[in-house]
Amino acid sequence: MPLEPYAYALRIRLHDTDAAGVLFYGHLFRHAHDAYEAFMEHLGFPLKDLIGTGASALPLPITQAQARYERPLRLGDRVRVELRVAAVRRRSFALDYRFLDDRGHTCARARTVHCLVSQEDAGLPAELHQALIARVASAGPSP
After folding, report:
1. Using CA atoms, how far apart are residues 84 and 81, in angstroms rounded to an integer?
2. What amino acid positions are annotated as catalytic residues?
3. In this predicted model, what pLDDT tens digit does every residue of 64-77 receive, in sequence order?
4. Domains, the chain, ordered by start
5. Deepest in the core among 1, 95, 102, 130, taking most CB within 10 A?
Protein backbone atom coordinates (compact mmCIF):
# COMPACT_ATOMS: atom_id res chain seq x y z
CA MET A 1 0.00 0.00 0.00
CA PRO A 2 1.49 3.36 -1.01
CA LEU A 3 2.48 5.80 1.70
CA GLU A 4 0.59 9.04 1.96
CA PRO A 5 2.60 12.01 0.71
CA TYR A 6 4.36 14.11 3.30
CA ALA A 7 2.19 17.18 3.97
CA TYR A 8 3.43 20.66 4.76
CA ALA A 9 1.10 23.61 5.44
CA LEU A 10 1.71 27.28 4.79
CA ARG A 11 -0.13 30.53 4.24
CA ILE A 12 0.61 33.01 1.46
CA ARG A 13 1.92 36.18 3.11
CA LEU A 14 2.20 39.68 1.73
CA HIS A 15 5.95 39.33 1.17
CA ASP A 16 5.23 36.24 -1.01
CA THR A 17 3.14 38.18 -3.53
CA ASP A 18 3.62 40.47 -6.49
CA ALA A 19 1.80 43.77 -7.05
CA ALA A 20 -1.39 41.90 -8.04
CA GLY A 21 -1.49 40.00 -4.73
CA VAL A 22 -0.58 36.70 -6.40
CA LEU A 23 2.27 34.43 -5.33
CA PHE A 24 5.44 35.66 -7.03
CA TYR A 25 6.58 32.76 -9.22
CA GLY A 26 10.05 32.41 -7.66
CA HIS A 27 8.65 32.07 -4.16
CA LEU A 28 7.11 28.73 -5.07
CA PHE A 29 10.61 27.25 -4.84
CA ARG A 30 11.19 28.84 -1.42
CA HIS A 31 8.06 27.11 -0.16
CA ALA A 32 9.08 23.84 -1.82
CA HIS A 33 12.44 24.12 -0.06
CA ASP A 34 10.74 24.74 3.29
CA ALA A 35 8.68 21.57 2.71
CA TYR A 36 11.88 19.69 1.78
CA GLU A 37 13.60 20.78 5.00
CA ALA A 38 10.61 19.67 7.10
CA PHE A 39 10.42 16.35 5.18
CA MET A 40 14.10 15.55 5.73
CA GLU A 41 13.73 16.27 9.44
CA HIS A 42 10.64 14.02 9.48
CA LEU A 43 12.77 11.22 7.97
CA GLY A 44 15.38 11.73 10.69
CA PHE A 45 17.89 13.63 8.56
CA PRO A 46 17.68 17.32 9.57
CA LEU A 47 19.54 19.37 7.01
CA LYS A 48 21.48 21.26 9.67
CA ASP A 49 23.10 17.93 10.59
CA LEU A 50 23.21 16.39 7.13
CA ILE A 51 24.75 19.19 5.10
CA GLY A 52 26.37 21.04 8.04
CA THR A 53 30.09 21.75 8.03
CA GLY A 54 33.24 19.77 8.56
CA ALA A 55 34.32 16.31 7.49
CA SER A 56 30.85 14.76 7.90
CA ALA A 57 29.11 17.37 5.72
CA LEU A 58 27.12 15.91 2.85
CA PRO A 59 26.72 18.41 0.00
CA LEU A 60 23.33 17.83 -1.65
CA PRO A 61 22.72 20.83 -3.91
CA ILE A 62 19.66 21.11 -6.09
CA THR A 63 20.88 20.48 -9.63
CA GLN A 64 17.51 20.79 -11.35
CA ALA A 65 14.27 22.61 -10.52
CA GLN A 66 11.10 22.97 -12.51
CA ALA A 67 7.58 24.18 -11.84
CA ARG A 68 4.20 24.32 -13.50
CA TYR A 69 1.64 26.87 -12.37
CA GLU A 70 -2.01 25.89 -12.81
CA ARG A 71 -4.05 28.30 -10.64
CA PRO A 72 -3.08 31.48 -8.80
CA LEU A 73 -2.25 31.41 -5.12
CA ARG A 74 -3.28 34.67 -3.51
CA LEU A 75 -2.50 36.66 -0.41
CA GLY A 76 -4.01 34.89 2.61
CA ASP A 77 -4.52 31.51 0.91
CA ARG A 78 -3.86 28.47 3.04
CA VAL A 79 -1.81 25.98 1.08
CA ARG A 80 -1.05 22.30 1.55
CA VAL A 81 2.16 21.08 -0.05
CA GLU A 82 2.21 17.35 -0.75
CA LEU A 83 5.76 16.06 -1.14
CA ARG A 84 6.55 12.69 -2.71
CA VAL A 85 9.85 11.00 -3.47
CA ALA A 86 9.82 10.53 -7.25
CA ALA A 87 13.14 8.74 -7.80
CA VAL A 88 16.20 7.61 -5.89
CA ARG A 89 19.54 6.83 -7.49
CA ARG A 90 22.93 6.06 -5.98
CA ARG A 91 24.02 9.72 -5.83
CA SER A 92 20.77 11.66 -6.29
CA PHE A 93 17.06 11.81 -5.62
CA ALA A 94 14.07 13.69 -7.05
CA LEU A 95 11.19 15.15 -5.09
CA ASP A 96 7.78 16.11 -6.46
CA TYR A 97 5.67 18.81 -4.82
CA ARG A 98 1.99 19.51 -5.35
CA PHE A 99 0.56 22.80 -4.02
CA LEU A 100 -3.15 22.60 -3.17
CA ASP A 101 -5.49 25.37 -2.06
CA ASP A 102 -7.99 24.92 0.79
CA ARG A 103 -10.57 23.53 -1.67
CA GLY A 104 -8.18 20.80 -2.79
CA HIS A 105 -7.44 22.34 -6.21
CA THR A 106 -3.94 21.79 -7.53
CA CYS A 107 -2.45 25.25 -8.00
CA ALA A 108 1.13 24.33 -8.85
CA ARG A 109 3.52 21.43 -9.17
CA ALA A 110 7.29 21.41 -8.82
CA ARG A 111 10.19 18.99 -8.93
CA THR A 112 13.66 19.30 -7.48
CA VAL A 113 16.62 17.00 -8.05
CA HIS A 114 19.22 16.80 -5.29
CA CYS A 115 22.65 15.43 -6.12
CA LEU A 116 25.63 14.36 -4.05
CA VAL A 117 28.54 16.28 -5.53
CA SER A 118 31.42 15.11 -3.34
CA GLN A 119 33.78 12.89 -5.33
CA GLU A 120 35.05 11.19 -2.18
CA ASP A 121 31.69 9.61 -1.36
CA ALA A 122 30.52 6.48 -3.15
CA GLY A 123 26.89 7.49 -2.82
CA LEU A 124 24.14 8.59 -0.49
CA PRO A 125 24.51 7.25 3.07
CA ALA A 126 22.82 3.84 3.32
CA GLU A 127 20.32 5.00 5.97
CA LEU A 128 19.23 8.00 3.91
CA HIS A 129 19.07 5.92 0.72
CA GLN A 130 16.82 3.35 2.42
CA ALA A 131 14.56 6.01 3.96
CA LEU A 132 14.07 7.61 0.56
CA ILE A 133 13.56 4.26 -1.20
CA ALA A 134 10.84 3.41 1.33
CA ARG A 135 9.02 6.59 0.25
CA VAL A 136 9.22 5.88 -3.51
CA ALA A 137 6.06 3.78 -3.27
CA SER A 138 4.19 7.01 -2.61
CA ALA A 139 5.43 8.65 -5.81
CA GLY A 140 2.72 10.20 -7.91
CA PRO A 141 2.74 11.37 -11.50
CA SER A 142 5.55 13.60 -12.63
CA PRO A 143 4.83 17.31 -12.91
Report:
1. 10
2. 18
3. 999 999 999 999 99
4. 6-122 (3.10.129.10)
5. 95
